[in-house]
Amino acid sequence: MTDPSAEGLAVRPKSATGDRDPLVRISGVIREYKMGPETVRALDSLDLEIDAGELLAVVGVSGSGKSTLLQLLGGLDTPSSGRVEVAGDDLSTTDLTDYRRRRVGIIFQSFHLVPSFTALENVMLALTFQGRTGRDRKDAARAALARVGLAERMHHRPGQLSGGEQQRVAIARATVHHPPLILADEPTGNLDRDSAESVLTLLEELRSEGSTLVMVTHDEASARRHATRIVRLAAGRVETEEHLANGGVA
Ligand SMILES: Nc1ncnc2c1ncn2[C@@H]1O[C@H](COP(=O)(O)OP(=O)(O)OP(=O)(O)O)[C@@H](O)[C@H]1O
Ligand SMILES: [Mg+2]
Fold it and tell me: Which CATH class is domain 52-75+94-248?
């Protein structure tokens, strides 16, 4: 093999934990919202790389752009300028409906479950339009619920479950299709401390099984116990980042 430096490979920017290509590469992303005569710049030339296998916690004061960042990663929004790449695909030229169905799972603070559906039906919903049989969808949903410890609660509706259990249903729904990237916006924001801890432990398990997670949180102390890296946003940019020893990747 030729000397890599001769081909310029030695100067290729390294990703956070090695020299593999990152799973996510955000380059120069600006997201502006026009509000009448005013323009709000939620993300301001943001650069961020995320490696496969990270549990990245994103912190920062209210309005620093955390949710905006997650919406872009989730294919729910598009940047005003700049580029978001996931697994080498530029999202601006990717079918975002297909991306959302197959390649990403999103968990919200307020669970977003359908109240009239059982836990099982809520999880099965995530597999609609995937060309799978009803039987196959049910089996996959059952397995995802068992995975989050809710095998005994499959036929309960959200109103018949605790907050922590509802969030675990939402995690089962977000992960039933085994997306490589899992996004969570304040997943423990509505939970008591014990439920929050069990949700974070579950997210950490998903990471150790090979998923990559990006979690927005106000709870920095918990993030420190579970995340592999903490990135702090300020005014739509990365202000600081810190690698942590959790998960053995720092
Ligand atoms: N749809 C929108 N229209 C106009 N401005 C918006 C919109 N969404 C977000 N913003 C503005 O963009 C900035 C970043 O918002 P964002 O929701 O990303 O913040 P955040 O860090 O998630 O805050 P919080 O911790 O309160 O959830 C804020 O100033 C916000 O007011
Ligand atoms: Mg937010």
Answer: alpha beta
